[in-house]
C-alpha cells in the first residue's frame, strides 16, 4: 500500500469541503472495497476522507410512509434495527445476509450503493424499493442512479448522505451465493409498493437491473407460478468460471420465484400477527 | 502446578502445542526478526510462456530503500544451480525422464504465470514491492498450453525447446499381456473417462523464508516454512548453492499447515539464502496469499481413461488405466513420483484384482509445477477405481455394496500380494464396510431418499473403499523405484538427570499434534509424566537428521525410531539398575516407570536411574558410559496400508444444482491408535479436504492465455464449516504386522477416501436421469447443466 493522507471530518459539510479541496481524494465509508483495493495497489488515492465520525450519517428514522436511512448505517445497524425490521423486514434481512459478521459491522449502505459492485446486495433493494438517493447536492431516483459496473450518477465531489425508502406492502430478497466468494451469483429483490411491482436483479450482469418481464407477470398475478411462462434472456448476463449465462438466467427465475414466495409468506405472517 | 502423570498410548489428552497457538504465541517464520534484516519481493511473470528478451532494473534500483536487485542471469553468473528433483523415474522404453533445469529465477524463458523473473531487496517490503513494479521486462510472448490433453497434441506449444512433444516420461506398471487376456475373457467391460481436478493446497500460513550469513563462522542459516528442513539443507546446500552441509543450518519453526505444499525445496529458499550471503544482511521474504496461488506447487490434475473387466458374476478380472499427468512448467521436488509410484501401485484397492496395467504420460505445460498434495497419487488411484466399480455395478445391475464385498480381500487372506508391487500386511475391508453401513444407517436411506423426493430434491448415497500406502518408505524399495535419498527416520531420547525427557526427532510438526502424540509414546514407554517430556523438531542444528513429515510417515516411521530409542534407554537403564540392585541384567524388568528384580520388591525408580547415569557414584563405570541419551534410526520394512470404507450422503436441489453433503460416515483401519482425539481430527480434516476437491475446489487456467482464473479465494472455493454435517468417524483397526507399535498412520486417509464417496453419492442421486459420471468439482453450475442436458436427452428419446 502507498502512503496517503487521512482526514476525518465530523460533519457532512466539512466532508464535502475536504473532498472539493483535495485532488485525488476518496471517500472512506466502511472501506470494504476501497481498503482491499488500496492494499492490492489497484487504488492509490492521495488522501482518504473517513466519514465514520459524521454521527448524523448513521441515523435511521421513519418519515411519512418511508424509512430514511443514513449513508453510514452499517449493515449490522440495518439488520438489527427495530425500525427497519418493523417496516421493511426484507431490507433488514438483506443487510443480515451481506458478507460475514466482520463485514456487517464495518460495511455501510452508502458505501455499497456508491460503489455499485455488480454483485452487491443493496443496489437490488434500492432499485426494487424505488428508493431515492439523497446526496450533498440533490436527490436522485434509484432508476437514474445505477449506470454500469462500478459506475453511478454521482458527480465528482458529491457524497451520498442517505436514502429515502418507501415502505412496500410486500417484499423479499432471495440470493444465490457464489460458493467461493459468497457474493451474490444472482440476487433478486421483489417488492410491491402501492400496488406496483418492481423486481431488481443483482450479481447477474454488469450492473443491477430491473427485470421488466418478471415485473409484468407479477403485476398481473403476484404468485411464484405467474413466472412459469417467463424466461430470462441470458444474452446480456455475465458468464464466468462459476456460472455460465444460461445458468445465471435460470438462477434469476428460481430466485425470483423464491423471493415472491417469501414475500407472500412474510406478508401472511404480518397479517396473522396483525389480527 | 498440575498433577504430573503418565499419559500413555490410547489416551486423549488435549494437545500440548495448542496453548501457544490459540493464545497467539506461536513462532512462525514471519514472526522472526533478525538484526539488520532487509526484505525481498519477487517480480513474477504475468505471462504463461514468454522469452525474456531484456530486463532493465535501472529505474527500480534508483528507488528509495532499494538495496539490490537480482535476476536469473545474476544467479547463473554466480554458479547457482537448478532446483533438483528428488525422484527420477524411467519410461517404458527404459530411458530416464526428461529433467530440464529449474533455475530459482528464470532466465531465457518463463514457463508459467508466477515464474520468478527478478528479486528485489529493500529496507522495507513496501519499498521492495514498489521497486519490483518499475522493473522493465521485455517479453516475447509465446503461445501457451495448460491442459495435458492439448500439450500432447501435435503442434502444441513446446514448454521446452528441446522437448518438442512436452513429454517428460511415458511410464508404465503392470502386466499388459495379462490384462489383455483378462479383457478377452470378460463378460462385461466397464469404462470411464475422468478428470482429477487441479487443486491448490492453501495452508493457512503462507510460505516464508529468511536467509542469513555469519562471516565469523561461515555459517548460513535459512528459516523456512518447511515440512522437512534436513532435506532442504541437503538439496539446497548440495545442488543449488554448493554450501557444505556443516555450514548450513535450516530451521523450520512453527509452521501453519503443510498438506504437502511445504514438502518441496522451493526457489525462494535458495534465493534468500544466496542473497543474504551476497549482502551480508538477513533477507526476509513472506509470500502473499495471491502470490502463493502462483508459486506454491499445485496438486492432482490428471486426465484418465480406465476400463475394468468383470466376469458374469461381477468378479474383477483386470484393470487397464491410461493417465495423463500434468507436471506444470518445471519438475518440482517429487513431481514425477506422485502420478506414477504413488498412484499405480494403489490401483488394486482393497480388492482381488488379478491383472493390472497402468500407463502414465507425465507432461509439461505452462502452469505452476504440480507435486504432492495430501494423499498424493493415492486419492487419484482411489477415485479411478471406486468410480469404475460403481459404473460396473450400475451397468451390470449389481448392488454397489455387493459387488465390492464379492471382490474384497478377506481379512484372513492377508498378507496379500497385489500385481502392482505392494504387499498388504494386514486389513479387514469387509469389517470396515460392515461397520460403516451400520453407522451410516444405510438401511434407512430409502426412507430419507423418499422424504427428499417429496421436497423435490434428489438424494444419493455413495460408498468408497480405499487403501493407501503410507509410512514412506522402505529405502531399498524406494531406491529401486527411483528415489534419490533414503526414507528412514531418526529420534534421540535425551533423559535429563532429573528424569525429564527431551526428544529430538527428524519429523516435522505443522498441525498434526506430534508434540502430544510423541510425548504419549515416551510417557507410555518410560513411565515419565506427560508434562515432563518435550518434543523438539525442525532445526538441523538441534536434531541429528530426518526426512521430515509427509506421506503419513511421522508416527509410522518417526514413531518407530522413537520407540526404538526408548527401548535403548530402557536397556541401558536396566544395566544401571542391575548394578545398583546387585542382580543379573536378565532378572531386571522395567514396568510402570520402575526397574525391579523379578520376583522381589527390590526396585529403582526411573528418576533414580536417570540421576545415577549423570552422577555415577554407584555405577558400572568399567562397562558402561555415563549419561542416558539414546538415538535410533528406523528404516521401515514395508509401507503401511491403512484403509477403510466411507459413506457420503448428498441432497441435490435440481433448480439450482446445489449439492449439499447431508451425512458422512468414515470407518478407517489406521492400526494402533495413540491419541484417538488427534486421529479423529486428522480424519475430519482430511475428509474436509477431500470433500473440497469433490464439491468446491478447482484451479482453473484460461486455455489460451494461460492465466490462472481461480487466483484468489474470491474464485478458488475453499470448503467452509457450513458446508459440512457432523462427520461420523469410527475406527476399525487391524494391527500392522511390521511397525513396532502396530501403527499404520492416518494423515491422508480422509482425503483419499472422500472424493470418490462424494461423487458416487452425487451420481447415485442423479442415476434416475441416466447419469453415470460427474466430474469434480460438482459445482452448482455443472450439476444444473448435467441435469438439464440429461432431461433434454430423455425428452428426445
What tags apply to this protein structure?
heterodimer; A: 275 residues; alpha+beta; five-stranded antiparallel β-sheet; four-stranded antiparallel β-sheet; 11 helices; globular; B: 797 residues; five-stranded mixed β-sheet; 30 strands
Describe what you observe in this structure.
The complex is a heterodimer of chains A (275) and B (797). In chain A, 36% of the residues lie in helices and 24% in strands. Chain A contains eleven helices and 14 strands. In chain A, the strands form four sheets. Chain A has a five-stranded antiparallel sheet with strand order 4-5-10-6-7. The model of chain A has no long low-confidence stretch (mean pLDDT 95). Chain B is globular. The model of chain B has no long low-confidence stretch (mean pLDDT 97). Chains A and B meet through α11 of A and α4 and α20 of B.
User: What is the tally of helical segments of chain B?
Assistant: 20
Main pleated sheet of chain B:
7 strands, mixed
What is the helix fraction of residues of chain B, given as a range? 25-40%
Mean pLDDT of chain A: 95
- Numbering strands along the chain, what is their spatial order in the largest sheet of chain B? 3-5-1-13-10-11-12
Query: What's the number of helices of chain A?
Result: 11
What structural class do helix, strand and pairing data of chain A support? Answer: alpha+beta
Tell me the span between the first and last alpha carbons of chain A: 58 Å
Taking pLDDT < 50 over at least 5 consecutive residues as the criterion, the unreliable ranges of chain A are none
Whole-angstrom Rg of chain A: 19 Å
Quote the beta fraction of chain A: 15-25%
Amino acid at each position: 500500500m502507498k502512503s496517503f493522507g487521512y482526514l476525518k471530518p465530523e460533519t457532512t459539510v466539512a466532508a464535502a469541503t475536504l473532498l472539493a479541496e483535495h485532488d485525488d481524494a476518496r471517500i472512506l465509508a466502511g472501506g470494504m472495497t476501497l481498503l482491499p483495493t488500496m492494499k492490492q495497489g489497484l487504488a492509490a488515492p492521495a488522501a482518504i476522507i473517513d466519514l465514520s465520525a459524521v454521527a448524523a450519517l448513521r441515523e435511521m428514522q421513519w418519515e411519512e410512509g418511508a424509512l430514511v436511512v443514513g449513508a453510514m448505517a452499517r449493515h449490522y445497524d440495518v439488520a438489527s434495527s427495530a425500525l427497519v425490521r418493523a417496516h421493511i423486514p426484507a431490507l433488514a434481512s438483506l443487510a443480515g445476509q451481506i458478507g460475514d459478521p466482520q463485514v456487517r459491522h464495518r460495511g455501510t449502505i452508502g458505501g455499497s450503493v456508491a460503489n455499485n459492485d455488480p454483485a452487491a446486495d443493496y443496489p437490488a433493494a434500492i432499485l426494487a424499493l424505488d428508493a431515492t438517493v439523497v446526496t450533498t447536492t440533490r436527490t436522485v431516483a434509484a432508476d437514474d442512479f445505477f449506470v454500469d459496473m462500478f459506475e453511478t450518477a454521482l458527480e465528482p465531489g458529491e457524497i451520498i448522505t442517505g436514502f429515502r425508502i418507501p415502505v412496500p406492502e410486500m417484499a423479499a430478497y432471495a440470493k444465490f451465493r457464489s460458493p467461493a466468494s459468497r457474493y451474490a451469483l444472482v440476487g433478486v429483490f421483489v417488492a410491491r409498493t402501492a400496488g406496483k411491482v418492481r423486481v431488481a436483479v443483482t450479481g447477474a450482469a454488469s450492473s443491477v437491473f430491473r427485470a421488466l418481464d418478471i415485473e409484468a407477470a407479477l403485476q398481473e398475478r403476484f404468485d411464484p407460478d405467474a413466472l412459469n411462462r417467463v424466461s430470462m434472456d441470458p444474452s446480456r448476463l455475465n458468464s464466468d468460471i462459476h456460472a455460465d449465462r444460461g445458468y445465471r438466467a435460470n438462477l434469476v427465475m428460481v430466485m425470483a420465484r423464491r423471493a415472491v414466495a417469501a414475500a407472500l409468506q412474510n406478508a401472511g405472517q404480518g397479517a396473522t400477527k396483525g389480527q | 502446578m498440575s498433577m504430573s502423570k503418565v499419559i500413555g498410548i490410547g489416551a486423549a489428552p488435549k494437545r500440548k502445542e495448542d496453548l501457544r497457538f490459540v493464545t497467539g504465541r506461536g513462532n512462525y517464520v514471519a514472526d522472526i526478526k533478525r538484526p539488520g534484516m532487509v526484505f525481498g519481493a519477487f517480480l513474477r511473470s504475468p505471462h504463461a510462456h514468454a522469452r525474456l528478451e531484456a530486463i532493465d532494473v535501472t529505474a527500480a534500483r534508483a528507488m528509495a530503500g532499494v538495496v539490490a536487485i537480482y535476476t536469473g542471469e545474476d544467479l547463473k553468473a554466480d554458479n547457482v544451480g537448478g532446483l533438483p528433483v528428488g525422484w527420477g523415474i524411467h519410461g517404458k522404453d527404459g530411458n530416464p525422464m526428461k529433467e530440464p533445469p529449474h533455475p530459482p529465477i528464470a532466465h531465457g524463458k518463463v514457463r508459467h504465470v508466477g515464474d520468478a523473473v527478478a528479486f528485489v531487496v529493500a529496507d522495507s517490503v513496501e519499498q521492495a514491492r514498489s521497486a519490483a513494479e518499475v522493473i522493465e521486462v521485455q517479453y516475447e510472448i509465446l503461445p501457451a498450453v495448460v491442459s495435458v490433453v492439448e500439450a500432447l497434441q501435435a503442434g502444441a506449444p513446446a514448454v521446452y525447446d528441446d522437448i518438442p512433444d512436452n513429454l517428460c516420461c511415458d511410464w508404465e506398471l503392470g502386466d499388459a499381456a495379462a490384462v489383455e487376456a483378462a479383457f478377452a475373457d470378460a463378460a462385461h467391460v466397464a469404462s470411464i473417462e475422468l478428470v482429477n481436478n487441479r487443486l491448490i493446497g492453501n495452508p493457512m500460513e503462507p510460505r516464508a523464508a529468511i536467509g542469513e550469513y555469519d562471516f565469523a563462522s561461515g555459517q548460513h542459516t535459512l528459516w523456512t516454512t518447511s515440512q522437512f528442513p534436513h532435506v532442504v539443507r541437503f538439496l539446497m546446500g548440495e545442488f543449488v548453492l554448493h554450501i557444505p552441509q556443516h555450514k548450513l543450518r535450516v530451521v523450520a519453526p512453527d509452521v501453519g499447515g503443510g498438506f504437502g505444499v511445504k514438502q518441496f525445496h522451493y526457489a525462494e529458499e535458495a534465493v534468500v539464502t544466496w542473497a543474504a550471503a551476497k549482502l551480508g544482511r538477513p533477507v526476509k521474504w513472506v509470500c502473499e496469499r495471491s502470490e502463493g496461488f502462483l508459486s506454491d506447487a499445485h496438486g492432482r490434475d490428471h486426465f484418465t481413461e480406465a476400463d475394468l473387466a468383470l466376469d458374469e458374476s461381477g468378479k474383477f478380472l483386470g484393470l487397464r488405466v491410461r493417465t495423463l499427468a500434468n507436471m506444470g512448467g518445471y519438475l518440482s521436488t517429487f513431481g514425477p513420483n506422485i502420478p506414477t509410484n504413488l498412484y499405480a501401485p494403489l490401483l488394486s484397492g482393497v480388492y482381488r484384482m488379478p491383472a493390472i496395467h497402468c500407463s502414465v504420460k507425465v507432461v509439461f505445460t505452462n502452469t505452476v509445477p504440480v507435486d504432492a498434495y495430501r494423499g498424493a497419487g493415492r486419492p487419484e488411484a482411489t477415485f479411478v477405481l471406486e468410480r469404475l466399480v460403481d459404473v460396473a455395478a450400475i451397468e451390470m445391475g449389481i448392488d454397489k455394496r455387493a459387488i465390492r464385498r464379492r471382490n474384497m480381500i478377506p481379512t484372513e487372506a492377508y498378507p496379500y500380494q497385489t500385481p502392482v508391487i505392494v504387499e498388504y500386511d494386514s486389513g479387514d475391508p469387509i469389517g470396515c464396510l460392515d461397520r460403516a453401513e451400520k453407522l451410516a444407517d444405510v438401511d434407512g436411506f430409502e426412507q430419507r431418499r423418499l422424504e427428499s423426493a417429496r421436497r423435490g430434491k434428489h438424494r444419493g448415497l455413495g460408498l468408497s473403499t480405499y487403501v493407501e500406502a503410507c509410512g514412506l518408505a522402505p529405502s531399498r524399495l524406494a531406491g529401486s523405484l527411483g528415489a534419490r535419498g533414503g526414507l528412514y527416520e531418526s529420534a534421540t531420547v535425551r533423559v535429563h538427570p532429573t528424569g525429564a525427557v527431551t526428544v529430538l526427532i527428524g519429523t516435522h510438526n505443522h498441525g498434526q499434534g506430534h508434540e502430544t502424540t510423541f510425548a504419549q509414546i515416551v510417557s507410555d514407554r518410560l513411565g515419565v509424566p506427560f508434562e515432563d517430556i518435550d518434543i523438539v523438531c525442525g532445526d538441523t542444528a538441534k536434531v541429528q537428521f530426518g526426512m521430515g513429515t509427509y506421506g503419513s510417515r511421522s508416527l509410522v516411521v518417526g514413531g518407530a525410531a522413537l520407540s526404538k530409542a526408548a527401548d535403548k534407554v530402557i536397556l541401558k537403564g536396566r544395566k544401571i539398575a542391575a548394578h545398583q540392585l546387585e542382580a543379573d541384567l536378565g532378572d531386571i524388568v522395567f514396568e510402570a516407570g520402575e526397574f525391579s528384580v523379578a520376583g522381589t520388591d527390590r526396585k529403582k525408580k526411573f528418576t533414580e536411574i536417570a540421576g545415577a547415569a549423570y552422577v555415577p557414584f554407584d555405577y558400572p563405570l568399567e562397562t558402561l558410559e555415563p549419561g542416558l541419551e539414546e538415538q535410533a534410526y528406523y528404516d521401515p520394512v514395508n509401507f503401511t496400508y491403512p484403509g477403510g470404507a466411507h459413506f457420503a450422503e448428498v441432497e441435490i436441489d435440481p433448480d439450482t444444482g446445489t449439492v449439499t453433503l447431508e451425512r458422512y460416515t468414515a470407518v478407517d483401519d489406521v492400526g494402533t491408535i495413540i491419541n484417538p482425539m488427534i486421529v479423529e481430527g486428522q480424519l475430519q480434516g482430511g475428509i474436509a479436504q477431500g470433500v473440497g476437491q469433490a464439491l468446491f475446489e478447482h484451479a482453473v487456467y484460461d486455455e489460451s492465455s494461460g492465466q490462472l482464473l481461480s487466483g484468489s479465494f474470491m474464485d478458488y472455493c475453499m470448503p467452509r464449516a457450513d458446508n459440512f454435517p457432523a462427520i461420523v468417524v469410527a475406527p476399525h483397526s487391524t494391527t500392522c504386522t511390521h511397525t513396532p507399535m502396530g501403527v499404520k498412520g492416518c494423515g491422508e486417509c480422509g482425503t483419499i477416501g472422500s472424493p470418490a464417496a462424494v461423487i458416487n453419492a452425487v451420481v447415485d442421486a442423479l442415476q434416475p436421469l441416466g447419469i453415470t459420471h460427474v466430474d469434480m468439482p460438482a459445482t452448482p453450475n455443472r450439476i444444473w447443466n448435467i441435469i438439464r442436458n440429461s432431461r433434454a436427452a430423455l425428452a428426445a428419446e
